[in-house]
């Protein structure tokens, strides 16, 4: 939790669903395993990407998602293929959650033709419209107005689909955030704003750039339903996102969810993070999402250690395969230099 003076105290936090979630509200085993698989896959792929970036083999700016795995898993379990997701440059877990293949993600990180953007977008520009992963952006907060436009389209066409947009805590200080929130509230759009509050705006702790560290309270000023949730708790987060998505489907307007986590690594894959208070980082690491959820699943008798080990091996193989695929994928050729850069004027001529 964030104390009144802005410091973080996680020593007393636990998985809230171990005490507050009754048996009837726990998803079935298949969903729980899906969530765990996504969390551990994200952790492993994140670790490997960071290692590759530090070694110089991955020559791109990679932004780790460590600490946010539970939020990503909850998003993946809550959304349908028809729903749309807009993410940030810290997007690995979000992309996996929406169904983008790890092979295409890694190929894009390496700038290869089999990547999500044919190797020309890089880590900050993943997208796969086939699965509803519409866009990621390298500009803080810029995904919010894009998501609002998608939500307006959903409202106008009556599709019943919801739009979810993820962003970090620092994005709540950007003008585009306030414009998007105001527009969504005014038009009662079917959108869920998911703030992945990892408590750091690059190298600045939240208490040093936000007079109120409880971002849900700031969001409520727009007359939007706003809620603060433990972002280390995958089931509490899943319940909050599912409820928000259902509100969107019923045309009851937008929801703002502040999912409180903690960044377990540096701002980028190669960044020094010695400035992070050691006691805060150690306390947060004790709640490392994937290992914590693993222990809880076994302790609650929802699965066995043998089954979890099997899921771990599957994730390890999946990650190894994706990196090998990316390394074997060719680089874009010169013939791709201007493709997707300039608009085709065929349509313009056809309507004249």
Number of strands: 8
The class by helix and strand makeup works out as: alpha/beta
Indicate the multimeric state.
single chain
Mean pLDDT: 91
**CATH structural architecture:** 3-Layer(aba) Sandwich
Total of domains? 1
| Low-confidence regions | 1-24
CATH class label: Alpha Beta
CATH superfamily: Thiamin diphosphate (ThDP)-binding fold, Pyr/PP domains
Give the biggest sheet: 6 strands, parallel
Give the termini distance in whole angstroms: 61 Å
Compute the number of helices. 13
The radius of gyration over CA amounts to 20 Å
**Morphology:** globular
H/E series: HHHEHHEHEHEEEHEHEHHHH
Strand content: 5-15%
How are the strands of the biggest sheet laid out side by side? 2-1-3-4-8-7
CATH topology category name: Rossmann fold
Helix content: 40-55%
Question: Could you please describe the fold and organization of this structure?
Answer:
- The protein is of the alpha/beta class and 352 residues long.
- It has one domain (25-100, 131-328): 3-Layer(aba) Sandwich (Rossmann fold).
- Helix content is 43%, strand content 11%.
- It is built from 13 helices and 8 strands.
- It has helices at 17-20, 29-55, 69-78, 92-97, 102-109, 143-157, 175-187, 215-220, 234-249, 278-285, 289-299, 305-328, 346-350; strands at residues 84-87, 133-136, 163-168, 191-197, 200-201, 204-205, 225-230, 255-260.
- Strands 2-1-3-4-8-7 form a 6-stranded parallel sheet, sandwiched between helices. A two-stranded antiparallel ribbon has the order 5-6.
- A hairpin with a 2-residue loop joins strand 5 and strand 6.
- Helix 2 runs antiparallel to helix 11 and helix 3 (69-78) runs parallel beside helix 9.
- The longest helix is centred in the N-terminal third of the chain and has 27 residues, at 29-55.
- It is globular, with a radius of gyration of 20 Å.
């Amino acid at each position: 939790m964030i104390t009144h003076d802005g410091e973080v105290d996680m020593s007393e936090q636990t998985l809230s669903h171990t005490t507050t979630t009754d048996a009837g509200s726990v998803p079935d085993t298949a969903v729980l395993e899906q969530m765990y698989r996504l969390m551990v896959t994200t952790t492993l792929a994140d670790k490997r990407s960071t290692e590759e970036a530090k070694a110089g083999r991955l020559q791109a700016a990679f932004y780790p998602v460590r600490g946010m795995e539970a939020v990503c898993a909850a998003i993946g379990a809550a959304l349908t293929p028809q729903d749309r997701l807009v993410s940030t440059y810290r997007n690995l877990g979000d992309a996996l959650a929406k169904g983008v293949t790890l092979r295409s993600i890694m190929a894009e990180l390496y700038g290869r033709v089999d990547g999500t953007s044919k190797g020309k977008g890089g880590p900050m520009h993943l997208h796969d419209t086939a699965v509803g992963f519409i866009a990621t952006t390298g500009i803080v907060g810029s995904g919010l107005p894009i998501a609002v436009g998608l939500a307006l389209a959903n409202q106008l066409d009556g599709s019943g689909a919801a739009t979810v947009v993820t962003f970090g805590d620092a994005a709540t200080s950007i003008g585009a955030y306030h414009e998007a929130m105001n527009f969504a509230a005014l038009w009662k759009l079917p959108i869920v704003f998911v703030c992945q509050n990892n408590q750091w705006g690059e190298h600045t702790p939240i208490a040093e750039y936000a007079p109120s560290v409880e971002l849900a309270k700031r969001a409520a000023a727009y007359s939007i339903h706003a809620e603060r949730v433990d972002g280390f708790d995958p089931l509490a987060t899943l319940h909050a996102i599912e409820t928000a998505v259902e509100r969107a489907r019923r045309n009851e307007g937008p929801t703002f969810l502040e999912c409180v986590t903690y960044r377990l690594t540096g701002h980028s894959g190669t960044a020094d993070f010695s400035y992070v208070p050691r006691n805060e980082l150690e306390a947060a690491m004790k709640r490392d999402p994937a290992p914590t959820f693993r222990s809880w699943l076994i302790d609650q008798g929802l699965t066995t250690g043998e089954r979890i080990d099997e899921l771990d091996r599957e994730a390890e193989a999946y990650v190894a395969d994706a990196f090998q695929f990316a390394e074997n994928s060719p680089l874009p050729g010169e013939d791709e230099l201007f493709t997707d850069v300039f608009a085709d004027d065929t349509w313009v001529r056809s309507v004249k």
